[in-house]
Design a protein that fits this description.
CATH superfamily: Ureidoglycolate hydrolase
Number of helices: 1
CATH class: Mainly Beta
Radius of gyration: 16 Å
Number of strands: 14
CATH architecture: Sandwich
Order of helices and strands: EHEEEEEEEEEEEEE
Helix content: under 10%
Largest sheet: 7 strands, mixed
CATH topology: Jelly Rolls
Number of domains: 1
Distance between the termini: 14 Å
Length: 160
Amino acid sequence: MQIHIEPLTAAAFAPFGDVLEATGDFRLINAGLCQRHHDRARIDVAPEVSPDNRPGISIFKAEPRALPYSFDLIERHPEGSQAFLPMSEHPFLVIVSQGPAATPRAFLTNGAQGINLHRGTWHGVLTPLHAPGLFAVVDRIGTTPNLEEFRYPAPFTVLG
């Protein structure tokens, strides 16, 4: 089963989450030397599920992958959104799905975009295409389980 990469746009990605980029409306701060693109994503940590849920920032370092890329695993986090902010200017692959029965979609960032996955969104693992694969990740920190995984019976291949 093959899927083709789509460019990452806010409209195409809206069912899954938010595109984080410095485009559109902004206000100037720091004596006019900095554009603030305000409130680009909702950090959702499900306090109604567990009172100790809180937002946190972690650093992920993932091994780069190559295209074509084959995968059979998707996952979701029922207790929180998850934002990936690249710490380098390299594009990365974002795989998302409406659920295990749906055909996944693959998006390619432009090297200056991050993403925020809505709580419960099925997605592939972090997939940088270049080293160092370093990301700041804003997501839910807590003591209750927050990971569900699904393995497809046959892998999908993402074509460039």
